[in-house]
Amino acid sequence: MVAQIQKIKRIAICTGGGDAPGLNAVIRAVTLAAINRCWEVYGICDGYNGLMMPEQYLEGGLVRLTRERVKGITHLGGTIIGTTNQGNPLTFPIKGLDGQIQEIDRSDELVRAFQLHEIDALIAVGGDGSLSIANVLAQKGLWVIGVPKTIDNDLDETVITFGFDTAVSFATECLDRLHTTAASHHRVIVVEVMGRYAGWIALECGISGSADVILIPEIPYDPSRVAKKIMDREEHGSKFSIVVVAEGAIPKGGTVSIVSREPGRAERLGGAGEKVADELQALTGKETRLVVLGHLLRGGSPTCFDRLIALRFGAAAVRALEEGQRGIMVALDPPNVKYVPLELATRRMKTVPLDSDVMLTGRDMGICFGD
Ligand code: F6P
User: What's the pLDDT score for residue 64?
Assistant: First the structure.
């Protein structure tokens, strides 16, 4: 083990994809744990952009992380080194001679940039997209440790990702607030939440926030079933309803609502809530309002739970390097943090199991899932 400690002189950390509360806590834990082992730590600006386009940065795209630089950041949302969900190095968009956008693989060039800067190892903090990139870099010989981040909680092989608890807590608070106004006006309020193709956020805030209907991508919904639930409530004296819609919700026989597709980045979802609100107003005749929580779920201070998980993940990633682990992701397996192969973690998306205890809780409480 001592030999491994001496081998590492310099490490880098990058944060990629959508930001999530807790990123700064990871950065702080990694920096302090590394400095305490006498390693230098650099933050790569904006995912891998700092290494792929250094000329665009005043400091050259790499930021030296010192004790001073990571002071007082544990509780801050966002990421002090920046992030991006554009410019995936594996499908990097460039303008071809014909003026058309083409996607090229710049991963070899990226690996060479790490060598050029004498970076011994990388701690890659990201969701499925960023960790899939990290997995390819690991296969090309880069020493990589992954840290799972996403408000969506859709990464496999870890019980939870940091950022999720903060997103669900805030969404639940919003549902609490919307209840009183919905009840006062006898309205239907449709609340769209993020989560991509998984329903974790919608399910957990919906149950905790007493939603009457929860629509998740895992269960294609029938608008008439949802309308019936609202009218049943009306008949029994509850003249308002709260309908939580995951942005990836799919109507029976329909498809997910996409806002845009651009080269080098994941497709953007949106419009699912609007669709449901329009359908419900037409089917029930009740006044319906739409609230899209969107990026509000990604902002603000991480909850204590997310802070602690993020700090634990960051410190565990440094310990993993010290132990000579490679190509792994740190993961929560309560009460411990364990290591799982990056390859396994990025193999498939973790969606809501329909027989899970949380789903059964919702069903037992009479929440309508649109089926
Ligand atoms: O993956 C995190 C996430 O917030 C998703 O829930 C959402 O679909 C997406 O990112 C939004 O990305 P952008 O920041 O590009 O709008």
Answer: 97
Q: Within its chain, how far is the Cα of 160 from the centroid?
A: 11
Q: How would you class 318 by CB atoms within 10 Å of its CB: exposed for 0-12, middle for 13-18, buried for 19 or more?
A: buried
Which residue is closest in CA terms to ligand 1's atom 14?
18
Q: What is the strand order of the sheet 288-292 is part of? A: 213-215, 241-246, 188-193, 288-292
| Average confidence (pLDDT) per 10 residues, the chain, 371 residues | 65 97 98 98 97 93 98 98 91 87 92 97 96 96 97 97 98 98 98 98 98 98 98 97 98 96 86 98 98 97 98 98 97 97 95 98 98 97
251 DSSP assignment = B
C-beta separation of 153 from 198 below 8 A: yes
Cα–Cα distance list, 44 to 74, 116, 166 (Å): 19, 14, 25
Beta partners for residue 242, in sequence order? 189
Type of residue at 95: K
What is the model's pLDDT at position 172? 98
Q: Counting atoms of ligand 1 from 1, which one is nearest the CA of 247?
A: 8
pLDDT score recorded for residue 236: 96
Nearest CA to ligand 1 atom 16: 268
| Atom 13 in ligand 1: residue holding the nearest Cα | 18
- With the most atoms of ligand 1 within 8 angstroms of its CB, the residue from 23, 197, 247, 268 to mutate is 268
Q: Helices 164-185 and 304-322 meet at what angle, rounded to 10?
A: 160
221 torsion bin: left (phi>0), alpha (psi -120 to 50), beta (else): beta
Residues 6+ apart with CB under 8 A from 98: none
Among the atoms of ligand 1, which is closest to the Cα of residue 298? 4
Which structure tokens are listed for 255? Answer: 């498809």
What is the reported pLDDT for 3?
43
> How many Å lie between the centroid of ligand 1 and the Cα of residue 18?
6
pLDDT at res. 261: 87
Task: Give the position of tokens 């090229």.
Answer: 104
- Among candidates 352, 355, 363, 350, which has minimal Cα distance to 150? 350
| 3-state DSSP assignment of residue 172 | helix
